[in-house]
Amino acid sequence: MPTPLLPALAGSGDGAAYAPYGDAPDALTVAGRTASREELLGAAGAVAARIAGAPVVAVRATASLETVAAVVGGLLAGVPVVPVPPDSGPAELDHILRDSGAALLLGAAEDAGAPGGAPHGAPDGVEYVPVDPAERAAWSKPEPDADTTAFILYTSGTTGAPKGVLISRGAVAAGLDALADAWAWTAEDTLVHGLPLFHVHGLVLGVLGPLRHGSRLVHTGRPTPAAYAAAGGSLYFGVPTVWHRVVQDPPAARALSGARLLVSGSAPLPAPVFQQMADLTGHRPVERYGMTETLITLSARADGDRRPGYVGTPLTGFETRIAAEPGADIGELQLTGPTLFKGYLNRPEATADCYTPDGWFRTGDIAAIEPDGFHRIVGRASTDMIKSGGYRIGAGEVENALLAHPSVREAAVVGAPHDDLGQQIVAYVVADGVTEQDLIDFVAAHLSAHKRPRKVRFLDALPRNAMGKPQKKLLPPA
Ligand code: MCA
Ligand code: AMP
Questions:
Q1: Of the residues 331, 347, 381, the one at which a domain ends
Q2: pLDDT tens-digit profile of 75-88?
Q3: Same structural domain for residues 360 and 437?
Q4: Pure H helices in 11-140
Q5: Nearest by Cα to 222 from 246, 200, 204, 205
Q6: Smallest CA separation from ligand 2 atom 4, residue
Q7: What band does 121 get if pLDDT is binned at 50, 70 and 90?
Q8: Going by fewer Cβ within 10 Å, which terminus of the chain is more open, N or C?
Q9: pLDDT, tens digit, for every residue of 36-67?
Q10: Can you tell me the distance from the alpha carbon of 151 to that of 442, in angstroms, rounded to the nearest whole number?
């Protein structure tokens, strides 16, 4: 019989193992609403009973107790969960639901949308299933095997539509245990964050972590400095944009001085932000590195050195290497470990491309390893993968969305350096009779708000080489 993925949840009521929050009425707070573990287990049990036997379910992943109950319900029932950004427009939602084959879309009752359930843009045949966190049902079916798919997480490549990344229950368990080891993360902790619940950072680490390790969770709804300051946690998660905003609000930053560990990830933490965090909070932040396909693989440690610009050492169970040209000390970071994905859904060739002939995962990130084992991420091999506010966005997906606008004839999208977002999406278009704001709103409506360009530059023609291929290097500055 496999060990439970979420032992703190199953063990609610068993105060000894998961004290001090085992029976707490507010073991879980999401956007201002609280639940005990027993209440969550009951609500998730009701979801599990409803969806048992489905091949896969999608969850409209708002920052809410409904999302947590829906996800945990899927995990109890052993049904793979596809979290969907709640503001996904028709193009994105349609792609995710069709590609994953999800015929059930779980979400809050008030978000059911049009009569018939499925919100606009969902393919025919998709049923909207309202989730009620106040429902209770016991669930006593056996724990699914470790190689059962827990999640299908949609993530952007450099071209084309997002691919579904298959993450097993065993990978989730191994990843969370490796983080507990690195961060001394225990049932004594209160984790605070306000990250979206449709990616690894906010959902896998930020919700399942507390349910595996027994810590209390305060999800602040949005990751604002004021909400972080008010939450009184011991362990805080943020993307660099969040930490940049925290240090710009010194009273909020100082309020975090009582915490145990401040963790940054999903994108590079600028060295000045690291330093300001240290100055204002008294804590040198722990930086960690990962990918949807691999979960978290490198981190500074609670009991170790933390250096600006470095993402620490491999977590226990992982090995890394740098594929550098002869004489160079930087090159592609490659790794092996217990949390690697099962592959991209229905895309065996794309999956195979991620691996070297000797079976190492190719991250596509360029890195260097210091003699003492500390890793530094230097950049990405492809400039068509953009990181904005910690979100991974493929230039090709945004270009395709722009080209779907009737006034746009050509489009090239890049990530331009940005103090707050790390990179901001800038679109260069050849178009008539349309404004910058029209195109920003068009992409936000068709894909989701975080994929919208923040700037649009109109050109007479895109720079191209003799073969007719657009030359992004020759685009004018944003
Ligand atoms: C503005 N808005 C619009 C438009 N303009 N909406 C529609 N159309 C428009 N034209 C609205 C937005 O909907 C939102 O509304 C508000 O303006 C703010 O915009 P938004 O872009 O969302 O906010 P932001 O302030 O720029 O966002 C910063 C952020 C966010 C909060 C830091 O980027 C964020 O949550 N990032 C986290 C990403 C993440 O978790 N990545 C992890 C990937 P409203 O306010 O009403 O909502 S997993 C991963 O990377 C791994 C494995 C790892 O290593 O962790
Ligand atoms: P995603 O799949 O959304 O998690 O994006 C993964 C990518 O985020 C990685 O390939 C890196 O380019 C980037 N990334 C994640 N964490 C860090 C970090 N701490 N420093 C630099 N880049 C990071």
A1: 381
A2: 999 999 999 999 99
A3: no
A4: 15-18, 37-51, 65-77, 90-100
A5: 246
A6: 291
A7: low
A8: N
A9: 999 999 999 999 999 999 999 999 999 999 99
A10: 29
Query: What does the DSSP 8-state code read for residue 355?
Result: B
According to the model, what pLDDT value does residue 115 have? 45
Do 99 and 155 reside in the same domain of the chain?
yes
User: Would you say 81 and 150 are in contact if contact means Cβ atoms under 8 Å apart?
Assistant: yes
How does DSSP classify residue 229? H
Q: Can you give the CATH number for the domain in which 183 is found?
A: 3.40.50.12780
Q: Among 358, 381, 404, where does a domain finish?
A: 381
Compute, in angstroms, the gap from residue 425 CA to the centroid of ligand 1: 12
Q: pLDDT tens digit string along 441-470? A: 999 999 999 999 999 999 999 999 999 888
Q: pLDDT tens digits, residue range 123-179?
A: 788 999 999 999 999 999 999 999 999 999 999 988 889 999 999 999 999 999 999
Q: Is the peptide bond prior to 20 cis by the omega test (within 30 degrees of 0)?
A: yes
Which CATH number characterizes residue 448's domain?
3.30.300.30
101 and 231 housed in the same domain: yes
pTM beyond cutoff 0.90: yes
93 and 5 together in one domain: yes
Residue 452 region by backbone torsions, left for phi larger than 0, else alpha for psi between -120 and 50, else beta: beta
Atom of ligand 2 nearest to the CA of 288: 19
User: d(Cα 450, Cα 393) in Å, to the nearest integer?
Assistant: 9
Q: Is residue 339 scored above 70 in pLDDT?
A: yes
Residues 245 and 274 in one domain: yes
Predicted confidence band of residue 13 (pLDDT cuts 50, 70, 90): low
- Indicate whether 114 and 215 sit together in one domain: yes
Is the Cβ atom of 311 under 6 angstroms away from ligand 2?
Answer: yes
Nearest ligand 1 atom, CA 205: 55
242/326 same-domain check: yes
What range defines the domain where residue 353 resides?
Answer: 1-381
